[in-house]
Amino acid sequence: MLFKIEPRPDPSKKMKYLSPLIAVVMMLITGLIIFLILGKNPVSAFHAFFIEPVNDFYGLGELIIKASPLMLIGVGLTVGFRANIWNIGAEGQLAMGAVFAGGIAIYFSNSTSVFIIPFMFIAGAFGGMLWACIPAFLKTEFNANEILVSLMLNYVGILILSLLTHGYWKDPNGYGFPQSILFSESALLPILIEGTRLHAGIIISFLAIFIGWIFLLKSFIGFQLQVSGLAYNAASYAGFKYKKMVWFGLLAGGLAAGLAGVSEISGPIGQLLPSVSPGYGFAAIIVAFVGRLHPGGIFLSSLLVALLYLGGESVQMNLDLPSAVTGIFQGMLLFYLLAADFLINFRFKVKSKL
Amino acid sequence: MKKIKNIKSKQKDNSENQETTPRLELCNITKIYPSVIANDSINLKVAPGEIHAVLGENGAGKSTLMKIIYGVVKPDKGQVLWHGKSRNIINPAYARKLGIGMVFQHFSLFETLTVAENIALAMENQNKTEKLSKKIIEVSEKYGLAVEPERLVHSLPVGLRQRVEIVRCLIQNPKLLIMDEPTSVLTPQAIEKMFVTLRKLSKEGCSILYISHKLNEILELCDKATIIRNGKVIGYATPADETPSSLAKMMIGKELPVCSENRKKIQPKKLLEISNLSKSKDNQFGTSLNNISFNVHSREILGIAGISGNGQHELINSIVGESLSEKPEDIIICEKPAGNFAPDQRRNIGLGFVPEDRLGTGAVPGMNLMYNYFLTGHRQNLVKLGMICFKKTFELAQKCISSFDVKCGSYNDQITSLSGGNVQKFITGREILQNPKLFIVVQPTWGVDIGAANVIRQSIIDLRNQGTGVLLVSEELDELFEVCDRLIVIAKGHISPSLNVKETTKNEIGEWMSGMFPGGPAELMKENLAK
Known about the structure:
The complex is a heterodimer of chains A (about 350) and B (about 525). Chain A has about 350 residues and is an all-alpha fold. Chain A has a two-stranded antiparallel ribbon. Chain A has a single domain, classed as ABC transporter involved in vitamin B12 uptake, BtuC (Orthogonal Bundle). Helix content of chain A is about 70%, strand content about 5%. Chain B is an alpha/beta fold. Chain B has 3 domains: about 20-100 and about 175-250, Rossmann fold (3-Layer(aba) Sandwich); about 110-170, no CATH class; about 270-350 and about 435-530, Rossmann fold.
């Protein structure tokens, strides 16, 4: 080995906040190279990817609709991530939120009560938290790794949703398509701004950012979560209960994902489908990290990742590129972020020969 | 304040050594770490058969220098001369080949192997074990270092483990033996025995580099001394011409501070009562607690002496609540049965605790001083409706910084930017500002510079004078005798009867540390009697 890696004595504080920007720039440069290799004009590709989706009022609305579940779940996951509790199961928790809320919408499809929507949100929150309870229980009682348990439960949750939409809850008049009935008006979120699809669910997401900000940075329990994440021994020395942190961290993620699931089905989708999320639960992990586990940062990064979703769809339509482009850009973003963080804390040094 | 002494050799028996080339010579050794210059142009000479002390405070750069000589660390600049020839000591194996042996401060033995196997690992030509065992016994008898070759290392007390390390060096007939803080794990009796061995080695022509910050040891044992401060050589001295205070002055750059005592009468009120506490060990290398009973009264400092690894860790964990007891009455804190209380419940009834591990347990690396104050200080009404009261928190953090002389920029500084001594002052201050009725302190001055150690000891004494009961766990007998009112000794999970500091001696405590006290651990009693 000619190089060795050593920790930097005094990692730059400024760079810690700049590293998401560095990651974005690197992602763009690599994207440029990929477009060139694919023989696409990079200017028109970038235009299609990053400008076209948001160059009108409707497009901006779409951006916020996509960002809404990302910021909601991102904040929820951050509660756990700050305490080193790794909930990778938001996608399944979202699906279970949708299942519980969708059940309400389907069984009360004839009701016109104004309580249907609140009831759906309560049920969805319950569904998401129920799914997060499983890794929390297994972790606190049997020390089972929450990463593996929550990850595997994603598939179970998504398949339960799929089972229901293919079977019990399939629309009898749906020509055999695996989907539920269209929800009645009382089970749909109102549109906030005419001419867009912006629905009332985004209020919950913005509220989550605000509450998360206060909760994570100003509250005693937010402090306890942070200490558990930074120094486990210090947390137990101070008498903070780790099991409580595990429950808290996982349930917060489950709650947020469940609510996001409700917003999706009663907002832009309006019915239950076998798949109600294009991977929001996973993308929210990237959102949380690019946002530096800080609600303000999560707000910005959710917009960025939402733009990647829209841009992916746009280049698919305009430039005939596969939809995997979105995944590639998301992956590059996380990769460069981790690389930048690593280089902020460590440096390569040429091994001196003695 | 620089005080350079001539390198005037003391008249030695083997005077022919005086004119010969030094066995080891260091020229301008420099080692720069990312955040600190550990060694800055260090020059040092060791004559054959000389016992040479390297004296300096914790963090002065002594250990780095020794690791350079032993080939563990490579210097950035400078030369190592061995018998007058420049050598590039690339690794410890080469150092051993030259005839350099080193006994580390933290042991480097494999616990699951036998003594003989451990020694065989360090040998270049792996001898057959029977032959080696014979040689081990031969060497250990010659130098009065009895070890049993077939015993597993994890079953040995620390004092014996160190013997194994020394024997491992001696078996290779070293020309230079480096000993890094060797006495920190030994009783006064064991230290005496070790000195006899070292003097014998020196007579036979083996040079010894003796690293220590304990002045009386250096005065007693060493022929020469090199004093290092902040990575630089401050001066050379002949211990025979010095006093502890003159050496200390060179080592820390100012007069040795002393604590003001004004002892008051112990109050009979019991603040900690431990009765018949027994706990079996929770891992293979832990220590079981055996029927432990003692009390801490108001306005007294009770010291627990003992070599580390004898159950201190398990005992303290039981007292602070990191390990719970089934019977609440086992541990009574401030008149409340608290054996089943969690750590925060115990703090709520008046317990304050300074743990042994500072960064990582006592303080959170990655957080600033204010948040680190809040870590345990939150119970001083710093939480309102679940929210942190920032204003009150930084006022208290500020108070802690100024009252306990914590050297830092502001409460916004990261705790990791402070030196070990300042971190310890901050943690101690934080716990004291919460007005504990019962104060538990573990190794409060370990690895701390003398100035900070003095501030910490003084604040413990002041706290005692206000009526708090203090339980002080320390390996340093000097410290225990300086601040404590009563002493108890822990050995193999057994607690000795208590002794009044005024009525005992370091020798008696030392003997008790090896388990020789009324009601002491039977297996240790037997072992000691057999010798």
